[in-house]
Amino acid sequence: MAAIRNFFKKKKLDIKFKTAGAGHKLTDEQPTPQLSTHDSGASASRQVVPPTEAQKAAAEPEAALARLQAPAPAFAKGGSTAVQIRMRKELEAERKAHRAKEEEEKSALSGGPTVIDKEGPPMLSVSGIYYHCPLVGHDVLPRDEMEAKISEFLYAQSVEEPALSAALIIRTLNKNQQAVKTCVDTLCKYLDNIIQAPDEEKFQKIRTGNKAFQERVKCIEGSLRFLHGMGFSEQRLPFQDGEDDFLVISAEMAADSGRLVQMKEVLTNSEPIIPELDRGLQVFSPSANVTKFELPDTFYRFTIEKIKKEAIQRSQKKMQLRTKAMKERDKQRELRKYRFTLLRIRLPDEIIMQGVFHCFEKMAAVYAFVRENLVNDWQPFRLLTGDGKTFDEEAEPSLAELGLSPAAVLTFAWDAQGLQAVAAVKGWTRQGRAP
Asked: What is the pLDDT of residues 161-198, one digit of tens each?
């Protein structure tokens, strides 16, 4: 496990280092910024004595309680929260502009017409489903492109970390998880045999033409790389009346039990690198179109035509007598209809924040999405429907089971009682200090 943790930690540090910009030697002379007399004089005239830590601590709880009790909304239009959200919106716009520019260049190269929609439809819901993976970089791409990028990343690590990269390739790049489990169990059996009997010659070679090897190991991408990392190499050896292809490990490599034990630990504890759904954060000004959604086909498991046909059939079924089991089957089929859900959060200043979620995710993911965009993320809040129903953060049902798919609008509200409970636990008073 330590090898896996160190691997991921090192790669994340590499990404941060690459995005930090151009470096310089400590011995290089750095230019000193020059300040004009006008600037220095202005700054001197505006110099203010900063408050002490005690003053800050005393003022914070009183200010928080005052914000809750004030009639004005907690999200002021010029406030820092709105600014933060607008900054995120601008970053998302830059990403989309970059993708649009790439598409335009591809179209120009292919000789096709270029269509640019400068205005776009009002309250555009979402242009598509995108993913990101912090381990391989900051790109936001469609799933197939992100999976290709992850594959490229894993193969690039083969020189530096051959065994670990092979284990991650086995876990990540093979879709049939049952076949992956069979392969891992077989590889672990090879390792156990050599660790327990390193001098046993029959455990030091594997006939690659063996049916069990072909069906259990060779068919899985990355398995041969892992065996090579163990120390196996291809050789032609006598077999029955002729020769056959074998994978053979030397006696010296087989005797290194410590290395083989570590490789087994890496293989059994490694987990697949899965692209993370990008929330596609968007922010809208107050609009009457907040409940109007435009969803791409990727949101649905079925085609639009099939969904319309099912809607007609469902209306016909209402006229028929149906058992409880039949109704339950219809309900489960309805829940499986959608793959994603688009949620819009109406903030107290009427600004709309939008994000994309898997239908099987729970309300905790929605609360986390909202919380990471708050300046004071510790302040308790609630998410409600239009009729005032509150969704608990710890709710067990999925978003689909809560009736929030394929799209819904929720209302953000500060939880005054929750904040008062926090204040009571911490011993805050109106004067901001413990009694």
From this structure: 888 899 999 999 999 999 999 999 999 999 999 999 99
How many Cβ atoms are within 10 Å of 381's Cβ, its own excluded? 18
- Per-residue H/E/C for 69-133: HCCCCCCCCCCHHHHHHHHHHHHHHHHHHHHHHHHHHHHHHHCCCCCCCCCCCCCCCCCCCCEEC
**Residue 340 bridge partners (DSSP):** 358
Q: What is the pTM of this model?
A: 0.64
How far is Cα 180 from Cα 192, in angstroms, rounded to an integer? Answer: 18
390: β partners: 384
Q: CA 270 to CA 283: how far, in whole Å?
A: 38
125-134, 186-195, 332-341, range with greatest mean pLDDT: 186-195
Q: 115-128 burial, b for 16+ CB within 10 Å, e for fewer? A: eeeeeeeebebbee
| CB 229 within 8 Å of CB 163 | yes
